[in-house]
Amino acid sequence: MEEIWLIIKYLFLGIFQGFTEPIPISSSGHLVIVQELLGLDLKGLTFEVLVNFGSLVAVLIIYRDDLIRLIKNGIGFVMTKDSRQKDDFDFILYLIIGTVPAGVLGVLLGDAIESISGVQTVGVTLIITGIALWLIRNLKGRKGDGQMTWKDALIVGIGQAVALIPGISRSGATIVAAMFLGMKQETALRFSFLLFIPVSLGTMLLSIEEVIADAGGSTGTWIAYVLAFAGSVVASYYSLRWFMNIMERGNLKYFAFYCFIVGGLVVLFL
């Protein structure tokens, strides 16, 4: 009976994390809150790494056409120097540049960040996320993929690095940074989620032994991890599709309201 309850809780957490990962309300922060409410103690970050990898699978499915085009034109530009393929080649370089800050900060300060991952920290950082979303609620940028610069990529990458702190939304931080830099909503959204790919993949590769070790305690734990992963994939897919429609309508203010309310409740009552 205990194993069944464990499986149910892990499945719920996988679906919950998957739903909150694409939208700008901080999946890591909400995972901390839900663990507090359910009395769960997920040691380390291996479970979070696993369900984040589920979100990565959903991102790969949704942006598969963009990825195929980028790879094809990137290689094509290297081989032929065709000017029509240069924008996609540059976009790949910008993704590499944007990945560096989070990679460096994660390696240098990963343990320190994990040590401050308390529920009160999450409450405060959710309010900060809400303020940032409120500030960009009416911005309409003009920069498309071809107008980005390496400085834009670096600044957005710094936003992603800051979002390693639980409660600071990764998608929120990168989209806020991109839109402050004058990017169109479509470009900001695409760059944000393509930037998620190398960070999530790298984190999973570095943590895969720990994930396997943590899941190997019993058959029930393995089942719980697999179902949590599957739930994260499905929930992330539909959540990202929903968020893309919201971005088109420019309704980010509702996420700001949500962050204010939840952050305030956490600070006051947890």
UniProtKB/TrEMBL annotation:
TM stretches of this protein: 7-25, 45-63, 91-110, 116-136, 188-208, 220-240, 252-269
Domain of life: Bacteria
Pfam family, one: BacA
Location of this chain's protein in the cell: Cell membrane
InterPro entries: UppP
Enzyme category, top tier: hydrolase
Gene Ontology biological process terms, A to Z: cell wall organization; peptidoglycan biosynthetic process; regulation of cell shape; response to antibiotic
Functional description taken from the UniProt entry: Catalyzes the dephosphorylation of undecaprenyl diphosphate (UPP). Confers resistance to bacitracin.
Miscellaneous field: Bacitracin is thought to be involved in the inhibition of peptidoglycan synthesis by sequestering undecaprenyl diphosphate, thereby reducing the pool of lipid carrier available.
HAMAP family tied to this protein: Undec_diphosphatase (MF_01006)
Entry's family note: Belongs to the UppP family.
Protein name per its UniProtKB record: Undecaprenyl-diphosphatase
